[in-house]
Amino acid sequence: EAGVVQSPRYKIIEKKQPVAFWCNPISGHNTLYWYRQNLGQGPELLIRYENEEAVDDSQLPKDRFSAERLKGVDSTLKIQPAELGDSAVYLCASSLDRRSYEQYFGPGTRLTVT
Amino acid sequence: AQRVTQPEKLLSVFKGAPVELKCNYSYSGSPELFWYVQYSRQRLQLLLRHISRESIKGFTADLNKGETSFHLKKPFAQEEDSAMYYCALSEMEYGNKLVFGAGTILRVKS
Predict the structure, then answer these.
(1) Contact, B73 vs B49, CB < 8 A?
(2) Contacts of A102 in chain B (CB under 8 A)
(3) Candidates 2.60.40.2470, 3.40.1010.10, 3.40.50.12780, 2.60.40.10; correct CATH number of A5-100?
(4) How many Cβ contacts (< 8 angstroms) between chains A and B?
(5) Does B96 have pLDDT greater than 90?
(6) pLDDT digits (tens, 9 = 90+) for B23-33
(7) Is B10's Cβ below 8 Å from some Cβ in A?
């Protein structure tokens, strides 16, 4: 079992450029989470999906961030345009369903915006 | 608003010494608390949850509602316990939305 897969693992871009992150959850997991982790802080939830429906995106900066989970499996998180303050680790996690207490995390994508 | 506080950024202890990683929370409802751990070059993973009341890798944590605390304890630290530890609170009525503390680095010295 590969676990949650994320790509790329590292990304360096200049400000104002677009960037996208991809996540493949554990097979059979219906719930998918995107978190952002700033340096020295714990992960903060950006958006949560139940199958293909975004059920909690209250923390997603909608002016520049977008996400999708087509067919309720893989998910993509996009930032356009990126700002210096977006430098962080972006984590994807999945769980069996919304009532499952354990979330399984991917390795994360470290984004550096210069 | 819900909040999780881990007052120590770094806790350094000698091998064999007792360990206590502090976690305090604020939440108006009935919380579900967790400890997640991240070992060097590994993914963030669940260590334990308060409802299970079990010991994992020698660690235990008791939920104290009066003091709104969920401290993680181990009587005898081992070098392999060195890692980053995050306390997290779940709002289960919203589908397991986790709120994390800032984390504590545990360093066990030989």
Answers:
(1) no
(2) 46, 49
(3) 2.60.40.10
(4) 58
(5) no
(6) 999 987 778 89
(7) no
Token output for B23: 């976690």
Q: How far is B44 from chain A, CA to nearest CA, in Å?
A: 6
Residue of B nearest to A102 (CA): B46
CB spacing of A42 vs B88 below 8 angstroms: yes
Nearest chain A Cα to B93, which residue? A99
Question: What string of DSSP letters covers A17-78?
Answer: --EEEEEE--TT--EEEEEEE-TTS--EEEEEEETTEEEE-TTS-TTTEEEE-GGGS-EEEE
pLDDT of the residue at B21? 98
Cα–Cα distances in angstroms (integers) from residue B69 to residues B50, B54, B75, in the given order: 11, 17, 18
Record: contact A56-B95, CB cut-off 8 A:
yes
Domains of chain B in sequence order: 3-109 (2.60.40.10)
**Would you call B25 an interface residue with chain A, using a CB distance cutoff of 8 Å?**
no
Label each residue of B69-80 as H, E or C: ECCEEECCCCHH
